[in-house]
Amino acid sequence: MQLKKILSHLKSKGVVLELIGDDSVEITQVSGLDIAKPGEISFLTDKKYLTHLNTTQAEAVILQKNLAGDFPCSQILVDNPYYIYALVAQFLNPMLLSVKGIHKSAQVDASASVDDSVTIQENAVVQSNVKIGHNTVISAGAVLESGVVIGTSCRIGSNVTICHDCVVGDNVFIEAGTVIGGDGFGWANNQGQWVKIPQVGRVLIGNNVSIGNNATIDRGAIQDTVIEDNCIIDNLVHIAHNVEIGSGSAIAGQTGFAGSTTLGKNCTVAGQVGFSGHIEITDNVHFLAKSGVTHNINESGAYAGFPAVKASDWQKNSVRIRQLDKLAKQVKALQKQVDLLTE
Hints:
This protein is of the alpha/beta class.
């Protein structure tokens, strides 16, 4: 499509922009700045790639106003290039449309309430008293157990299982293989014998939530496990029973939350972070990769290490740890000198 059509779409989304260059050029796809081919559109967010603007073959580039210059491509000047790039990528790569209706191989209980606009693909199972809202897609092999409620405009991926009585809000994407509402890890020990504790809570997922592939979110033991609005959760994340994830939080892959952890609003969690149970994290906390969170955190900011401390302290300690061998040798040499002086 012509660039002018993309710009019109952005303006319809409320984007304020300025164009330097030709809006009639044809755009076929998005691409990286250094590998773009003619007909593609790219973006720039990091000044260290600024030199690529002189050699890029991209037809147009999205960048901040203060980086505009005499470059061989059209320039779309905006405040947040990465966000605008996301909007453009969505526009050029719309989600594949599914054929509406219920596939003949799907099993849908007669008591289920399914909107006429819903898509239910091959071999999906919808059990008793399930409710599915307008324009939702249930992909092949997915299982919705009894009493599940799914909101509008959701996409439930292939082989996803949503266990009984769990509630999913509107505009929620759950990718393939994820399990929502499986039993939490609840056991009591009696003289070496493990006795299973029934998990009677649910999982409640808010609106505009995205959950990656093969994640697991356990149902509550007594109270519900809660994922608030606008959260994004990566692949292979485990969220145990009674965990609460605050709105706007982002959680990267291979992170694990032990039971009854509360994560505040607008937190970010990098990969392989581990949370011990029964702790509370305040809003606007950011954990670096592989952090081990073992205690309540009451102050916003960045944290790292095991146990997790302020990132600035962790960085200082990391430098000192690398000097331990040198310091040990110095102490040993000093001890020899002391021994000689005291003989």
